[in-house]
Amino acid sequence: MTFWDDRYRGETYVYGEEPNEFLRAVASRIPHGRVVSLGEGEGRNAVFLASLGYAVTAVDSSGVGLHKAGLLAARHGVSIELVQADLEDYELPAGLSGVVSIFLHVPAALRKRLLARVPEVLVPGGVFILEAYRPEQLALGTGGPREAALLPTLAELKTELSPLDLEIAAEVDREIHEGTFHDGPSATVQIVGRRKPAQVA
Questions:
Q1: Which one of 163, 179, 195, 197 has the fewest CB atoms closer than 10 angstroms to its CB?
Q2: 43: nearest Cα among 21, 29, 62, 25
Q3: Pick from 188, 129, 124, 191: which is nearest to 157 by CA?
Q4: Domain ranges of the chain
Q5: What are phi and psi of 24, to 5 degrees?
Q6: Collapsing DSSP states into helix, strand and coil, what is residue 116?
Q7: What CATH number labels 2-194?
Q8: Is the Cα torsion angle 136, 140, 142, 148 positive or negative in sign?
Q9: How far from 24 is each of 18, 29, 35, CA to CA, in Å?
Q10: The whole model's pTM is what?
Q11: pLDDT tens sequence across 141-186
């Protein structure tokens, strides 16, 4: 995808090299195992998860971003699987301990399709983690797309993730300083959802 390839071109990591703060705070809730990070970009979140011992697959449409993700992983001495794919065509694999979506803003129809798959692919007790800008972010202009249709509301996400137990489901106003394009007061929605553990007979 030309837009993202152009954004990621160059040596600077445009969203920084440190993981998203919300992910850092809640990642330990994910059971040990395999994690897929959607729209991973340059690898900051995937590398962090790999450093915690997870087997991480980083999925992104940009080959430029994924190349930098591989370089970042090598610098940190961890290994991540890199998958270049358009999310319109990507199918989440089954048997995942975690699915991560950090500032992934896609059209509502695609978001609904991806989120409908999440409860199916998580193992019992598996965890879904999301942080995204919500529509109020448009007035702040400190990051994210400029189209309201790409910004989910908390109510929408609660509906779309209703099969999961939502341990965190909150609208949050906070300062974000994650590289060039996420910088300043921000309006986000944060989700931690867990697939119900298997029932013991």
A1: 197
A2: 62
A3: 191
A4: 2-194
A5: -60, -40
A6: helix
A7: 3.40.50.150
A8: positive
A9: 9, 10, 14
A10: 0.96
A11: 999 999 999 999 999 999 999 999 999 999 999 999 999 999 999 9
